[in-house]
Write a structure and sequence with these properties.
Layout lengths: L14 H5 L15 E7 L5 E7 L1 H5 L3 E6 L30 E2 L5 E7 L2 H8 L3 E6 L6 H8 L2 E2 L4 E3 L2 H6 L3 E9 L11 E7 L2 E6 L4 H12 L6 E4 L15 H13 L3 E4 L15 E9 L5 E12 L22 E9 L13 H19 L3 H8 L3 E2 L4 E2 L5 H12 L11 E3 L2 E13 L5 E8 L4 E4 L9 H13 L6 E4 L16 H24 L15 E3 L2 E4 L2 E4 H7 L4 E8 L10 E13 L4 E12 L6 H20 L30 E6 L23 H13 L24
Parallel strand pairs: 1-13, 11-12, 15-16, 22-23, 29-30
Antiparallel strand pairs: 1-5, 2-4, 2-6, 3-5, 7-16, 8-16, 9-14, 10-11, 10-13, 14-15, 17-18, 19-20, 20-28, 21-22, 21-27, 24-25, 25-26, 28-29
Helix pairs in contact: 8-15, 11-12, 14-15
The structure holds dioxothiomolybdenum(VI) ion.
Dioxothiomolybdenum(VI) ion binds next to loops.
C-alpha cells in the first residue's frame, strides 16, 4: 500500500460545492407541483386532544388538506430493529391517537401550496386539550413511578465488600442535563410518490435505515422506497434515525398525490427529533493504601419518554478503562413527558465520562496522588470486562505526550495556588475513550474509459470528510489523482454502506472501497489480456498496474487506451467486506485531554484558555479532517461543560429555551488554542488501513477535564453540568494582588 495519500491531509473534495452553495441539501429540492406541510405542535406535555377547530385554517389561502388523528391514513409500526435495518427511536406513529406525550409533538399537519400559506394556516388551527399533570424531570419521574431496568449492565467481583474495607473511598452523584443536537440544518423531508414507489430526500445519517422503516410503515417492499441524502448540515446523532416529520411528509404526499416537503422548525428540533437525556450518576470508588482501585460502582439513571425506552449507557467505558477486580455498572431509566431521547455524539460515554473522570479526580485527591499519576497506575492493560486483550492501546503514551506539551509538571496541586495577575489558573485532565466498531459494507468502483474513477456506496458524508477519504482510498489503490475520482454517497440505490454514526464509517467503508478498487483493476487486467486485448499474449497475473499504466516486460499502456481500443466504458469492481471479529480483541480508541481554565473572581469570569488533546485512533486517513473532528468535538465538549442545557418548566414539562438564542453553545469567542496530537499507531487487527474512527472520541472526557480544572482553580467541585459561573460565585479563594 502506498503511503503517499493515506495519512496525508488533502482538503475536502466536496468543499467547493459546499461553500459555493451548490451542494443540494434535503430542503433544496423542489420537485414539480410540490406542496409544503407545516406542523401544528402540542402546547401541553401530557394529556389528550379534546377538540381541533380547523374552520379558520381551512379558509386560509392555499390550504390543500389538514391531517390529524381523526384524518390520517392507517399505517403500520416499524419493528424498529437496527439489525433488520428499520430502526426509529420514536415508534409511535404521528397522529396515531388523541394522546399527547410531550410538548412539541405533532398534533396536526397543514398542507398548502407553499410554505407561507402552510405556516399561516397552521397558526390558525385551534387545539383544545384535557391536560394531565406532566412529569417534568428525572427527579419527578423517579418519585412518580420509579425506574426500569436498562441495558449494558455489568458486574464482576464483589464491589460492595471491597468498598467497605478499602483504605480510601468516595461516593458522589453527578448530573447532566438534557442536551439538544443543534445542527445548522434542520430536519427536512421531501417525499414524492411515483406510482407505487416512494422517493424521499432526507437530511439523514442513515438512508438505508430510513428506507427500511418507511417500507415497514407503509407496508411496501424495501425496493419500492428510495432515500437520498447526498449532503447534510450535520446531525451529531440526531439524524441517525427517522423522526415523525418524515412519516407525515410521505403520508401527505401519498394522500395529495403531490410531492410534499416538511421541515422541522427550530423550536421542534428540541422536542420531536431526539435529544441527549438527563442523567443522574452515582459513583462509588475505592482504593487500597497505595492508590490502586479496588472497587468501582457506576450506577446511572436517565430520562426516557412515555412511548419508548432509550438507555444512555453511561457506564459503557467504566467497564474497561481502569483495572479493577470489583466492578458494577448499571443503567436504569425513568419516564418523563419529553420526546424520546436518542444518540448524541458519543452517547453514553460523553455524560458517563463526565461522571467517571470527575470521580477519578476526586479519588486521586482523596488518596493524595496526582491525578495523572493516579490514572497511569490504574489504567487497564487488557479489557477486563470481556477478558480480552485490546487490539491496540496507547493511552499511557497519549497521556504522557499531552502532559509534556501542556506542561502538567508545572501544576501545583493546591486548589487556587496558581495565579496569574487577577486570574486564578486551574489545570485539569481526563481520559477519553470510545469503542471502535466496524460493520459489513458494499462498494462499487468503476475505472472509466475517460480516465476517471466513479465510486458508489450508500453511506453518508455528514460533514466529517467521508467523500474525501473514500477518494483517498481509491487513489491509494489505483494511483489516480483525487481530482479524477468521483465519489457518490448517501443514496439507497448504491451498494449498501453503513449508518454514519458510532465513529465507524471510516473503518467500515474504506476496506470495501479498497477491495472494489482492486477488483476493478483485476477486471481491467482481464480485459487487457483477453483475446481482443493489447496484452492478449500475457497472463493477467503477470500484468502490472501502476498509476494508470498497464505494463509487462517494458511494454506499457495507459488503461484508458486499453478500454477505448475495445470500446469498453469501464472496468468495474464490486466488493463486500465483513464486520470486525470481536472474539479475539477488544477494539477501542483512547486519548487524554488537558485543560487550562482561568477564573477571574473580581468579575466572575471563567474561561477555558488552553486545551491539549492527544488522541489514539489507530491511523488517521486524513490528518486535516481528523484534526477537524477532534477540534470540533473539543469545542462541543466545552459547550457541554459550560453552556449546554435544555431547561424544562418543572410545573408543566415545557421546554423554556428551545431556540438558538437561549440554548447556549460554545462560540468562536469561547474557543481557546486547541492543540491536537494525533498518535499514529495503525491498528491492523481492525482493518487493512489500521483506522479505528475519530468522530466521537474527542468529546468524551472533555467536560470532566474542564470540571477538574475548575476545581483546581477554585476549590469548588461542580458535579452538575453545565458549570455556569453562578455555581462558582461563593467561597472562592481571593487572588493575591501584586
Ligand atoms: Mo453518532 S451520536 O453515532 O452520530
Amino acid at each position: 500500500m502506498s503511503d503517499s495519500i493515506i495519512g496525508a491531509g488533502p482538503r475536502r473534495i466536496d468543499g467547493r460545492l459546499k461553500v459555493s452553495g451548490a451542494a443540494p441539501y434535503a430542503a433544496d429540492h423542489y420537485p414539480d407541483n410540490m406542496a409544503v406541510g407545516y406542523g401544528v405542535f402540542s402546547t401541553i406535555a401530557s394529556g389528550r386532544i379534546t377538540n381541533l377547530d380547523l374552520s379558520e385554517a381551512r379558509r386560509s389561502p392555499g390550504v390543500i388538506d389538514i391531517y390529524h388523528h381523526g384524518h390520517f391514513p392507517s399505517l403500520y409500526h416499524t419493528p424498529s430493529s437496527m439489525m433488520q435495518g428499520n430502526k426509529v427511536e420514536e415508534t409511535r406513529l404521528p397522529f396515531e391517537d388523541d394522546r399527547v406525550y410531550y410538548e412539541g409533538q405533532f398534533v396536526a399537519l397543514v398542507v398548502a401550496d407553499n410554505l407561507e400559506n402552510a405556516r399561516a394556516a397552521a397558526y390558525k388551527v385551534k387545539v383544545s386539550y384535557d391536560e394531565d399533570q406532566a412529569i417534568a424531570n428525572l427527579d419527578q419521574g423517579v418519585k412518580a413511578h420509579g425506574t426500569q431496568k436498562g441495558k449494558g449492565n455489568h458486574s464482576r467481583g464483589n464491589p460492595e465488600a471491597s468498598f467497605a474495607g478499602a483504605a480510601h473511598s468516595i461516593d458522589y452523584t453527578y448530573t447532566t442535563p438534557v442536551e439538544t443536537h443543534n445542527p445548522m440544518e434542520m430536519h427536512a423531508t421531501v417525499a414524492s410518490w411515483r406510482g407505487e414507489r416512494l422517493h424521499v430526500y432526507e437530511s439523514s445519517q442513515g438512508v438505508l435505515q430510513e428506507k427500511g422503516a418507511l417500507a415497514k410503515i407503509f407496508g411496501i417492499a424495501p425496493n419500492q422506497v428510495e432515500v437520498e441524502s447526498p449532503f447534510i448540515g450535520s446531525g451529531f446523532g440526531g439524524k441517525l434515525w427517522m423522526w415523525p416529520h418524515a412519516v407525515t411528509a410521505a403520508a401527505a404526499s401519498r394522500e395529495t398525490g403531490r410531492p410534499v416537503q416538511v421541515v422541522v422548525p427550530r423550536q421542534q428540533m428540541f422536542t420531536t427529533t431526539g435529544h441527549r437525556p438527563e442523567t443522574r450518576q452515582r459513583l462509588r470508588l475505592a482504593t487500597d493504601d497505595r492508590g490502586r482501585l479496588v472497587s468501582i460502582r457506576h450506577e446511572s439513571i436517565n430520562t426516557t419518554s412515555f412511548t419508548d425506552q432509550y438507555v444512555e449507557t453511561c457506564g459503557s467505558v467504566t467497564k474497561s478503562l481502569y483495572s479493577c477486580d470489583n466492578v458494577l455498572v448499571s443503567h436504569e431509566t425513568t419516564r418523563v413527558n419529553r420526546g424520546t431521547p436518542t444518540s448524541m455524539r458519543a452517547p453514553g460515554a460523553a455524560p458517563g465520562l463526565f461522571a467517571l473522570e470527575s470521580a477519578i479526580d476526586e479519588m486521586a485527591n482523596e488518596a493524595g496522588i496526582d491525578p495523572l499519576e493516579f490514572r497511569m497506575n490504574n489504567y487497564a492493560d487488557r479489557d477486563e470486562s470481556q477478558d480480552l486483550p485490546f487490539s491496540s492501546n496507547h493511552i499511557k503514551d497519549a497521556t504522557r505526550q499531552a502532559a509534556e506539551k501542556f506542561g502538567w509538571s508545572k501544576r501545583t496541586p493546591e486548589p487556587g495556588s496558581m495565579r496569574d495577575g487577577h486570574e486564578i489558573v486551574g489545570y485539569g485532565m481526563a481520559a477519553c475513550n470510545w469503542e471502535a466498531m466496524r460493520f459489513p459494507c458494499d462498494a462499487r468502483v468503476s475505472l472509466r474509459a475517460d480516465g476517471t474513477a466513479y465510486v458508489t456506496c450508500a453511506t453518508q458524508d455528514i460533514g466529517t470528510g467521508t467523500y474525501t477519504i473514500v477518494a483517498q482510498a481509491v487513489s491509494d489503490v489505483t494511483g489516480l489523482p483525487l481530482e479524477r475520482i468521483t465519489v457518490k454517497l448517501g443514496d439507497t440505490s448504491y451498494p449498501e454502506g453503513p449508518l454514519s454514526g458510532g465513529s465507524w464509517t471510516t473503518a467500515t467503508t474504506l476496506p470495501a472501497v479498497a477491495e472494489a478498487s482492486r477488483k476493478a483493476i483485476e477486471q481491467l487486467k482481464s480485459h487487457a489480456t483477453s483475446g481482443k486485448g493489447e496484452f492478449g499474449d500475457v497472463a493477467a497475473e503477470d500484468l502490472s498496474f501502476e498509476n494508470g499504466q498497464l505494463s509487462h516486460n517494458g511494454r506499457s499502456m495507459n488503461y484508458t487506451e486499453v478500454l477505448n481500443a475495445q470500446r469498453l466504458a469501464s472496468a468495474d469492481g464490486e466488493a463486500h467486506t465483513g464486520g470486525a471479529d470481536t472474539s479475539k480483541y477488544s477494539f477501542r480508541s483512547f486519548g487524554a485531554h488537558f485543560v487550562e481554565v482561568r477564573w477571574d473572581p473580581g468579575i466572575s469570569n471563567l474561561r477555558v484558555s488552553r486545551v491539549v488533546s492527544a488522541i489514539d485512533v489507530g491511523r488517521a486517513i486524513n490528518t486535516l479532517t481528523a484534526r477537524n473532528q477532534v477540534e470540533g468535538a473539543v469545542v462541543m465538549g466545552l459547550g457541554m461543560a459550560h453552556f449546554e442545557a435544555t431547561d424544562y418548566d418543572s410545573r408543566n414539562a415545557r421546554p423554556v429555551n428551545n431556540n438558538y438564542a437561549e440554548y447556549l453553545v460554545a462560540t468562536h469567542a469561547d474557543q481557546p488554542e486547541i492543540d491536537v496530537i494525533l498518535l499514529d499507531n495503525p491498528d491492523y487487527e481492525f482493518n487493512e488501513y489500521g483506522a479505528r474512527g475519530i468522530g466521537e472520541i474527542g468529546i468524551t472526557g472533555m467536560a470532566a477535564a474542564v470540571a477538574n480544572a475548575v476545581y483546581h482553580a477554585t476549590g469548588k467541585r461542580i458535579r452538575e453540568l453545565p458549570i455556569t459561573k453562578d455555581k462558582l460565585m461563593e467561597n472562592i479563594p481571593e487572588p493575591q494582588r501584586a
